Amino acid sequence: MTNAKVLRSSFMLVILAILITLTACGGNKGNNSSSSASSPAASSASSEAASEAPKEKVTLRIASAYTPDHTFGPAIAQIIDEFTKQHPEVTVEKEFLPVAELDKKLTADRAANNLPEIFIIFPGAGTADYVKEKKIIDLSEYLNADPDWKDGFISGALDNLKFEGFPGIYAAPIGAYSTGFYYNKELFQQAGVEPPKTWDDLLAVIGKLNAAKITPMAIGASESWRSEHLFTALFYKWNGAEKAKGILSRALPYSSPEVIEPLNKMVQLVEAGAFSKNYIANNYAAEIADFNNGKAAMRYSGSWTVGESTGPNSPAGFGDKVGFFPFPYFADKEEHKDSWMGGVSDSFAVSSRAEGHQKDMAIELVKTLTSTASSKLITEMAHDLTAVKADVDPAKSGKLIAEVSKAMSTGKEFSGDISAFEPYKPANTKLYDLTQAVLLKGITPEKAAKQLDDEVAKSK
């Protein structure tokens, strides 16, 4: 009996030991399971802690012409301020200067290999040098990864930032523009004239305005970019925008009729009495003032004129008097009727010097500046066009920008300054100077063209 009890007791002890062992194992499994179940939370907590960890502090230098006086200036400043609130680790240094000073600054920065992380470039031969020298990055990868960003640009906008021989897209455009004539409706009514459609119509309007003792056109002729813009528009209406590529390829010499005839048309405007007696001395500010104060009936200018004539610096109510019409075409060149000087202008490039988080934030800031939301804000505040589609409120953007946009929609081909097709810097500079000299009647179109060809010959 005693032995049986001992045997039973021993057996029970063995069973108990096994159960304890199994329970212990089960407990471990339970702990493992519990640990596994809590692992997403732990991972989430870890991720949250990581996301809350201080990010690397970076500084972004951004260079542009968006000073407080620029039509885009106030909106751009607001967008950047909001960006730095969203990204407190980022300090943005704004290197904003007037265009001429900005160009000199970027030239010096480029030579010193000290370009800002973000800076403005323009489509054309000059920008191709940045690409060749690998000074700016290809944004294709980032555009393709964000279809909303890529699809937000107006049709064909990104094509302007592609360069032959270098696959990719090298900047994100913010500015878009069209050029044409802005006119004072009241002064037109006084002279009994309507917006002209053809070149001959324009000359007739100039004659009637003069007869009514109204200066037909304001122009800041002392600044050579004004004459270069006028020449560009005449070139496209005479030849079509595609013809400008002949300057780049050297298939079209400056002494060709295609170049000389638009220069002759500039002289024709002067001889028709299109400008005031002191047009030679007027700068761009005087051009704006003459038009905005009713001293001239028309301006040939870009879409930025909307902001100049309707913004806070213009006379109260003046914007309601302003209308727009496309640059008149030549009746015997009607096939080029819808060739416009216009398209994409200032675009944001990212310097190849930017690395790591600084590069990520530079791209993020460029995306923000060229977003649909930013475009809406800029258009409504600046009363100007952008290269990004946006559903703007006409009550905020104004009727004139809507009129310009509607007229621009009739264009079939757009191209920028003729100077963008001249890759040789000395010839490029001379092109500006000589179009100005022709407009001031200081040189004949033929002699100006020969000087340009002689300058180009030095590049060979």
UniProtKB/TrEMBL annotation:
Entry-linked Pfam families: SBP_bac_1 (PF01547)
Gene3D superfamilies: Periplasmic binding protein-like II (3.40.190.10)
SUPFAM superfamilies in alphabetical order: Periplasmic binding protein-like II (SSF53850)
Lineage top rank: taxon: Bacteria
Location of the region described as Disordered in the Swiss-Prot/TrEMBL record: 30-52
This protein's name: Extracellular solute-binding protein
Organism (species): Cohnella silvisoli
PANTHER family: ARABINOSE-BINDING PROTEIN-RELATED (PTHR43649)
Compositional bias per record (Low complexity), positions renumbered to this chain: 33-52
